[in-house]
Each structure stands twice: as C-alpha cells, then as structure tokens.
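Here's what a typical entry looks like (GDSL esterase/lipase):
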Amino acid sequence: MGYWTVSSMAAAVVATAVVFAAVTTTTTTRGAEVAADEFRSGASFIFGDSLVDAGNNNFIPTLSRANMTPNGIDFAASGGTPTGRFTNGRTIADIIGEMLGQADYSPPFLAPNTSGAAILNGVNYASGGAGILNGTGKVFVNRIWMDVQVDYFNVTRRQLDDLLGRDRARVFLRRKAIFSVTIGSNDFLNNYLMPLLSVGTRVSESPDAFLDDLISHLRDQLTRLYTLDARKFVVANVGPLGCIPYQKTINRVEEDECVKLPNQLAQQYNARLRDLLIELNNGGDLPGARFCLANVYDLVLELITNYPKYGFQTASMACCGNGGSYDGLVPCGPTSSMCDARDKYVFWDPYHPSEAANVLLAKYIVDGDSKYISPMNLRKLFSL
C-alpha cells in the first residue's frame, strides 16, 4: 500500500484499549455469499498500539518499528523471523485469537496480501506509537492513530459487503465478531508525560481536561465502529505505566518501586473509561452493543507484584534492551543485549510484555472472572 505521511492519515495508543473481532468464518471468493452459520473458525479485528501491532508499521516511514532482530525470535509462525510485533513471540491479540478458535493470525491492514478472502480471518489495524488523540506519538514521525484505524476498518467493511453481500456481512459482524481495542498508553507515555514535547500541553491543559479529551475522542471512535456494525467490544484499560522498565530507568526508582505519576494518571483514566463503558452498555444510545472492560492495570500489577508465583525471575528488567539499571533506555534491536531465559522475564523490552507474560494475561481475559474482565469474559462474549 506504499508509504503514508502524517498529513495523509486522518487519525488512530499501550497498554490500553484493545478491539478484538471474533468471527466464525470459512474462506470464500469475492462476490460469493456465505451464510453466517457456515463460518467455522474465529477471526479478530484488532485496533490499538504496539502492544498488538502485527506489522502495520513495517509499511510506513516511522521510527516505531520492530521488524528487526531479535524481535520475533520465538514467533513460531515465522520461524523466528521478525514480523513487526513488539515482543519476542505472540502478542496478546494473537493468543486470544488462538484461544477463541481463530484459524490464523489477523494480517496487518497495510500488508499487500490483506485483501479478498484473507479478511474473513480478521484484520489487524494496530500501529506502534498510536494513540487515541491524533497528536500522540509525534516523536515517531508517523503512526496510524485510532481515527485512521477506524477509517481503515471502513474500507474493510465495504470489502466484506463485496465478499458476503450486504445483509450477510451485517450478520457476520453483528453476531459473529468481537471488536477489541487496546489503546491509550501512548497518550500518556508519548504525549502528556513526554519531556519537552508535552510542555505546552501540560501548561495549557490540566490532567482532568486531558482525560476528558481522551474519553470524548474514544467515545466517538467506538460510536463510529458501532455505525459500521460492530456490536461486541472488549476495551482494555491502561496498564501500570510507572512499572515498565523505561519509566523505572529514567526515574531511577528501586527494583520493587513503580513511578507514581504515570500510575496515578493511568488509574484516573481507567476510572473514566469504566464509567464510559457502563454508560454505553446501559444508556440506550447504542442498542444491541456489548462492551467488556479488560482490567489490564490490575492484571499486570498482580503479575509484577507476585512474579515468582507465576514462574518469572524478574518483573523489573527488560530481557532485550540497553541502558540504566533495568536495560530500559534503548529499545530492542540487533545491538541490544538479550537475556537467555526469555520465558522468565515479564518484560521483553523497555515497554512491552514478553510472550510468556502475554499468555498469562490472555488466559485471564478469555476465561477469567469479573476482577479482570467484566461484565463477562471473552469466551462468554464470543458465545452470545
């Protein structure tokens, strides 16, 4: 699809909001109509940031990329070749898709082969560096922010009409799909909390006003997806940003400490997000929609706090990275140091969980109780 500049992208963040579309499908050819009950495997329509990016950033000129070694070293589907995923193996979106019966991983929207029958398996629109706000992630030059990700889904929506026919495409999306959104972390890490670049924002906008702006934009984005026939949503909140190796390194905290301000902002945003999803579930403005909240903050904090219980050796150090006490300054790349026991580290790099951590997180989101996923888990949502 070629390269995109910032000005050519209309708009599209970590650890926070995820849109998974679980869909039951069979392959078909363009123009064919397929009954909804003929779809046999799951599909995922994924929106978000680098936590779930499957390679979209490979196709744009950006500083936020993971298509270099040793990223992907444990990704079996590629034989250990980097794919653009910001981890050593599968993302949480990949694992959730597998658990819900998806036949294959959702391909990146910008990949040349993401067309025709391939989209019936789902599509991944996520982009490293992306945020809820259009201005988030400027430090990376280019990224596909959430508004543009929704624009891209609109393209897919028209393609589904061509593949299935308008009526069956509507049934396919409304009854057989789960839309998952994982975004919001970059709006803090690479916007409001970014040194120098955020000074103007932080002077002109209070934390409450900034949070209001985030929630207002996210409400509009979820509503746009609804108008495009999305009905089953799972939205992830923002994780404990003050506990990632990058924040711990630049703020020079002790190994068992997290940085307070990023965590406070994440908790404030998460409270607003919870209220928003309750309102959307109960308000009547989006009839037939179901919104589930994935409580990533408490889930990741539990993993970090009690990491030995889950078989990890450290929840502070990055497995792949360089600089500072926690190897948290320089992103993972060919010249980075890398740990030997990758499955014993909660964090793969200064920002992102390892595949081993993603496996645990996914299990709680798919089959967990209301402490970590509410008002129902993803398996229940998928079955509705």
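Confidence is low (pLDDT under 50) at residues 1-37.

More examples are in the samples folder.
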